[in-house]
Amino acid sequence: xxxxxxxxxxxxxxxxxxxxxxxxxxxxxxxxxxxxxxxxxxxxxxxxxxxxxxxxxxxxxxxxxxxxxxxxxxxxxxxxxxxxxxxxxxxxxxxxxxxxxxxxxxxxxxxxxxxxxxxxxxxxxxxxxxxxxxxxxxxxxxxxxxxxxxxxxxxxxxxxxxxxxxxxxxxxxxxxxxxxxxxxxxxxxxxxxxxxxxxxxxxxxxxxxxxxxxxxxxxxxxxxxxxxxxxxxxxxxxxxxxxxxxxxxxxxxxxxxxxxxxxxxxxxxxxxxxxxxxxxxxxxxxxxxxxxxxxxxxxxxxxxxxxxxxxxxxxxxxxxxxxxxxxxxxxxxxxxxxxxxxxxxxxxxxxxxxxxxxxxxxxxxxxxxxxxxxxxxxxxx
Amino acid sequence: xxxxxxxxxxxxxxxxxxxxxxxxxxxxxxxxxxxxxxxxxxxxxxxxxxxxxxxxxxxxxxxxxxxxxxxxxxxxxxxxxxxxxxxxxxxxxxxxxxxxxxxxxxxxxxxxxxxxxxxxxxxxxxxxxxxxxxxxxxxxxxxxxxxxxxxxxxxxxxxxxxxxxxxxxxxxxxxxxxxxxxxxxxxxxxxxxxxxxxxxxxxxxxxxxxxxxxxxxxxxxxxxxxxxxxxxxxxxxxxxxxxxxxxxxxxxxxxxxxxxxxxxxxxxxxxxxxxxxxxxxxxxxxxxxxxxxxxxxxxxxxxxxxxxxxxxxxxxxxxxxxxxxxxxxxxxxxxxxxxxxxxxxxxxxxxxxxxxxxxxxxxxxxxxxxxxxxxxxxx
Lengths: 381, 379
Known about the structure:
CATH topology of the largest domain in chain A: Creatine Amidinohydrolase
CATH superfamily of the largest domain in chain A: Creatinase/methionine aminopeptidase superfamily
Oligomer: heterodimer
CATH architecture of the largest domain in chain A: Alpha-Beta Complex
Strand order of the largest sheet of chain A: 4-3-2-1-5-6
Number of helices of chain B: 10
Strand content of chain B: 15-25%
Number of helices of chain A: 10
Helix content of chain B: 25-40%
CATH class of the largest domain in chain A: Alpha Beta
Distance between the termini of chain A: 30 Å
CATH topology of the largest domain in chain B: Creatine Amidinohydrolase
Order of helices and strands of chain B: HEHEEHEHEHEHHHEEEEHHEEEEEEE
Structural class of chain B: alpha+beta
CATH class of the largest domain in chain B: Alpha Beta
Shape of chain B: globular
Number of strands of chain B: 17
Helix content of chain A: 25-40%
Mean pLDDT of chain B: 94
Distance between the termini of chain B: 35 Å
Low-confidence stretches of chain A: 1-13, 376-381
Radius of gyration of chain A: 22 Å
Largest sheet of chain A: 6 strands, mixed
Largest interface: A-B, 51 and 52 residues
Number of domains of chain A: 2
């Protein structure tokens, strides 16, 4: 048994631009960052985003780099002044402005179809023109930034203090507004998983069945839906649905990820085309028992690393994952530190050989984990 | 019959490797390191026939020895073996490329790196450590190999053309007052995936006096709206995508709308008529601009209203702009789209995907080039 990363899923394509958290939420987050800059004696912070690692910049601005499949940089000064530089064609100015609170200045810097590493030069030029150089800067997520962009930033700003880890810790604890949105995402993920299980039928094409589920969850309000499944004798991996029919007696493991108002949640379960095999039933029971054990034991203050090693409930050859989840599917999280109340975790318990899976999105409370969607363990179809 | 990407024909991999290796020899490269993230699926897909699951994947391809595929999801190893023609598949952590770089160093001191521009400081450092100043941008090599489609790739593109038609017909069937843009997109998506698409890149817009298309939004379709769609179903990755641009009207089109759309259809037909091997890519843009510009719309054929009259997808990227001197060759593919903002109608979408043949052009859509009018039905 080990703690592993959740397989990263294809990022969302349909980002709805008419839904936003209130501007006050973003203002409060930037205020928190400014306090951190004050504490670290830094004058400003550079926050990088691209379509693969988008959450940090979105957290402060509401802007989602996935919208244009491009790169962006946010400059936040200690006095709160904030500017967004996005590698987007100038014609999209109005559209980009719809995503960000009005107090954030928007500058579009053109787009390249190969690599948008000019975002570093653009940020350096922006700072230079406004006399912002010669200050001490911090950076968030620059480790994911193209090297040429980082070289340009260093040439302009000198050594940049990496604040990513400190900030990871701050965003770990969700606000009430965030919890409300994640809860809705979790409910949609659960609905998706149940509908996906119901759509599994002998002879039914996998991809076609899941396409119908996808459509219904979009209609229900999701911005993005991704379904991974594992089927058949070689079911040792979760994968996108394929153009193949479900076979009689096949166990099906289903993992659904949903994005709702930019926040993500997962839900997973297992099903069987006709009747559960004894092995599948037994594995499901053991996963359910382990899940219940985690729910009770993983309370605020507990350390997952230690508890994980002590857990006896999981069958051999099972795969398990626990990650912080929110704006990113897997937000960096140190399993050796005590759990904080208000953290949201995704938990996946998977036994591929027996065709059993259980996954959920859970809130850390003083009394243990609280399911944000409600439990469904398995169903016989 | 839906093409299963796992069932590649004999010789497909060898043909691609040979094309890449010709480019490597021209550019003096000993080995290629082809890297791709979740947002650059096409690089690794072309070399390995593997659709990346997880953060990234990469391939080390030497001049003579067998290639090695590196994937980052341990759970995906079985699927990787199922789909890829590369037999040697290994795991790496997805962000640290020192393992693949060190392996590549065994094959020589000059490496062509694909996706160099998106690599992080740590990744660039790992390349520098292995190769010193022997690091080159390898994208040109891959682009040149991929720009001419093999027979199998052409078959895939033909299927994508059919899928785009299915998507548009699903749109026509779904359009009704009150339907929201993202619901319409969901309907089209379902229809195409049911028919065999792996994914769809969808832009659309519904309304009046539209200025562009965008990712689907929340707004609801109203009677009298124009609905613009740029539908791009794909198989595997964006290199195997066919785009269809069409406009529908909820209700009866006005004479002005019909007249203006007919102008775009004329531009499209005239552009397709000149496509054949040897023709300058820029001339395909020029003829569209000339036909539309001649109707007193010259200013609308330039930025900010118009940037490009078409392009291809994925690897071998090129744009149909007037200054593009590239000569067309058999086996190239592209979308030709005289999509246009006109002051009387707003933006209109009109365009489709074609293959360049030995003698001319093959359309990948069977749909009529016209402004589609959808009868209003109140649900």
